[in-house]
Amino acid sequence: MILQIVFILIIAIIIGFIINFAFIDGVLQAPFADAFIAFCENVLQLDYFAAQNAYNVLFQQNKPLWLTIGFILLLLIIFYIALSRFTRYFHQISNSIIMLADESEKEIHLPTELDFLEKKLNDVKYKLEKRARDAQEAEQRKNDLVVYLAHDIKTPLTSIIGYLSLLDEARDMPVEQKEKYVTITLEKSYRLEQLINEFFEITRFNLQSIVLEKDLIPLNYMLMQVADEFYPLLAPKGQKAIVNIDGEMTIYADRNKLARVFNNILKNAIAYSEPNSTIEISAQNENNQTFISFKNTGKTIPPEKLKMIFEKFYRLDSARSTQTGGAGLGLAISNEIVQAHGGTITATSHHNQTVFIVMIPANS
Q1: Residue ranges for the chain with pLDDT beneath 70
Q2: The pLDDT of residue 136
Q3: Euclidean distance between CA atoms 36 and 4, whole angstroms
Q4: Rounded to an integer, what distance in angstroms lies between the CA atom of residue 32 and that of residue 26?
Q5: What's the pLDDT at 323?
Q6: Considering Cα of 91, then 95, then 96, then 100, what sign does the dihedral take?
Q7: What is the structure's pLDDT at 274?
């Protein structure tokens, strides 16, 4: 655009000099002078000498003035042309922004001079479209999950009502049978409580803001404590969780929130590990970063699913039952907590082995 304006200025200067030499000092001097004198004689009723004197005063003695006037007129024309182009550009940019606001499906096109802006606007458009699709998919997953949870709540609730009705009707029921019914009712109550908690977790997710309270944490002790706490979930399937860390290791982070990250990852590993398998937990420091990995043996996660496991309300188990999946928020929340620490959480899955790696910067 600037080159075009410079080019027009150069052309204007050339035209100005051509006009100056052609009409005043050049080959057209005599015809122009004769025409002017004839105009003065015929129209203004001046004699020849007065007309010639008028020509000399107006043109011969004021060449710089006429040249300046000519240049000013040319500059005004150039300014008008440039302003018209700018106005057209602004109008096109305004229409493009309206397309963004209206979420138009059409691609944005601008003049060649605005290629850089066209690319940026289209990039923004694609990002907004992707964000809208992701939000819509997450909302759909949430709605589906709520329907599933509502359906699953009926099962333990029906069992609780049924067994309590039996206990109420048969007051003289044998003790052993009564204990059996009470045990089943209690298990169903715990399950019902879990499902209700998942409802609260879904509604609470978007209202939470992550505020970190960081201090130095003995990482070895924390990971061993996490592994020990999951023994009741590991034992029934013959699984084990072992912690392999060489030497003492500390990390500067929010103790409670980081423990929640480890709990979510380990819970996920237990749910999708093979029976009688071992979940390996390890950590190491490298380049002022701490890497904590969780490796489990189980069914390989397909790449398309692996990309989505950190999204809200996404569960690897797409079956309707929520017995093994939860609300699909554990890994999404873990991802947000790790990002709040300035770190990353990634997952890989090959040859029936899945590895989650949490990276926390040393100066987080």
Answers
A1: 1-9, 12-13, 15-29, 59-63, 66-67, 70, 138, 141-142, 144-152, 198-210, 312-329, 363-364
A2: 80
A3: 37
A4: 10
A5: 47
A6: positive
A7: 92
pLDDT of residue 342: 92
State the Cα–Cα distance between residues 38 and 42, nearest whole angstrom: 6
CATH architecture of 214-361: 2-Layer Sandwich (3.30)
Residue 27: predicted pLDDT: 45
- Encoding tokens for residue 89? 């550009």
Q: Is the dihedral of CA 169, 170, 175, 178 positive or negative?
A: negative
| Tokens (6 digits) for 271 | 């749910």
Domain boundaries, the chain: 2-102, 137-205, 214-361
In Å, how far are 12, 79, 201, 263, 350 from 73, measured between CA atoms?
Answer: 10, 10, 72, 78, 75
Give the N- to C-terminal CA distance of the chain in Å, as an integer: 47
CATH number of 137-205: 1.10.287.130
Q: What is the structure's pLDDT at 320?
A: 38
The pLDDT value recorded for residue 202 is 61
Bridge-based pairing of strands 214-218 and 250-254 is antiparallel
Residues 40/46, Cβ–Cβ less than 8 Å: yes
The CA-atom distances, in angstroms, between 46 and each of 34, 42, 58, 185 are: 14, 8, 15, 123
pLDDT at 301 (0 to 100): 85
Q: Which amino acid is at 43?
A: V
- pLDDT tens digits along 169-208: 888 888 888 888 898 889 888 878 877 776 666 666 554 5
Q: Which residues contact 357 (CB under 8 A, 6 or more apart)?
A: 291, 292, 293, 345, 346, 347, 348
